[in-house]
Amino acid sequence: MHTPQSTPLTIDRDVVVVGAGPAGLSTARRLSQAGVTVAVLEARDRVGGRTWSDTVDGAWLEIGGQWVSPDQTELLALLDELGLETYARHRDGDSVYVAPDGTRTRYTGDRFPVGEKTAAEMDRLIELLDALTAEIGAREPWAHPKARELDTISFHHWLRAQSDDEEACQNIGLFIAGGMLTKPAHSFSALQAILMAASAGSFSHLVDENFILDRRVVGGMQSVSETMAAALGDDVHLSTPVRTVRWDEAGVTVVSDRVTVRARKVVMAVPPNLYTRVSYEPPLPRRQHQLHQHLSLGLVIKVHAVYETPFWRADGLSGTGFGAGELVQEVYDNTNHGDTRGTLVGFVSDEKADEVFALPAAERRRRILESVAAYLGELALEPVVYYESDWGSEEWTRGAYGATFDLGGLTRYGADQRTPVGPIHWASSDLAAEGYLHVEGALRIGRLTAEELLDELTDTPPGETS
């Protein structure tokens, strides 16, 4: 990788990629393998985007995205190709469910230990969502005859139109709102929820944590990006935020603080909320300006608590807990491969995150750990390392896990998310179908974008770049 220099570089390439996350690097990697010259410009001082594996206070943590599920075939194939190994998430023992009234129940299996009526309602809602997911799919949900109807009602209100069991609605909502989109269920549409489920194969997959959170990467998920970047060598430029994209039909000039790249094509491989951090000359068309304003990232605190031992296992617990009414709505054993210490990871999403971010850090920590202890007991109150992944404060991300549309936005703008503007292409997990908002989706978009560019570069004879 190219380290920053005091003298700005000016280079010529076939394609310049903005962003060195999984989407950008997989695009650049495939192009480079096909003999296309590339440059990757990354604003951060590291590669990996929303994947980040680092040591904090002596504890190795997965600060960003980390899990691999069996249906993520693109990621699994790349891990094999790169020689990276995976290991199973610990799941032996009982899980814990905390009911709305605070009742704590140990259970096994993938269904919450709720009352008979609530259980029946949850099963019915899951079947209904599975049927809609299969009918509408992940590729073009905006094109379905039911799309507008489902896109103009919030997921919160849609659920309650299907069922009068509030506990069932809250539990089903948990898997999409807090667990995936990290926004309140009243702020995104039922169609957006169906897209999320369809991208994972079914809604049933989302409610089965043993499927969706199946495995982890030995060495961390960031190692996927690091390995791809290493092969690209000095074509990856770090600490290089892009300021301006000058474009016309002949090509682009991409200007950053340290490197200026003249190229035939540019790939904006960053989250959609960052598109407007760049000045475009001439400005983007009206459609793109409007589209980008209707996409926004969610908010979640990923909480890491490290203990001398995984104490919950001695009590016969898996470390898995759920509670839609809890501050920490889900918690898992996140102990690292070969580590004797125990690590828990929990998630505080959307409005709950708003609430605790308003508190002093010590008070926020106390409340979060008390919520974890509601699942796993008082020993959870005293970790040896405690860390909060706050992606909302990251300058080059500004939220988590990814971007979703507001009510009505998916049907209004979805078809144009990836439409190129002259030589400008768009690529990120936020724009994916299968693997949406995951590394899987980023890799799929990277492959698709590279294939499209190779077709265009082959069809168009080389000319002068702007």
How would you describe the overall organization of this protein?
It is globular, with a radius of gyration of 22 Å. The protein is α/β, with parallel strands linked by helices and 466 residues long. The model is unreliable at 462-466 (pLDDT under 50). The chain contains 16 helices and 24 strands. The strands form six sheets. It has a seven-stranded mixed β-sheet with strand order 9-8-19-20-21-18-22. Strands 1-14-13-12-16 form a five-stranded mixed β-sheet, with no helix packed on it. Helix 1 (22-33) runs parallel beside helix 16 (439-459), helix 3 packs across helix 6 and helix 5 (155-162) packs antiparallel against helix 6. A hairpin with an 8-residue loop joins strand 20 and strand 21 (342-349). It folds into three domains: 9-49 and 221-284 and 421-459, FAD/NAD(P)-binding domain; 53-70 and 85-91 and 212-216 and 299-393, Polyamine Oxidase, Chain A, domain 2, CATH 3.90.660.10; 115-209, Orthogonal Bundle (Guanine Nucleotide Dissociation Inhibitor, domain 1).
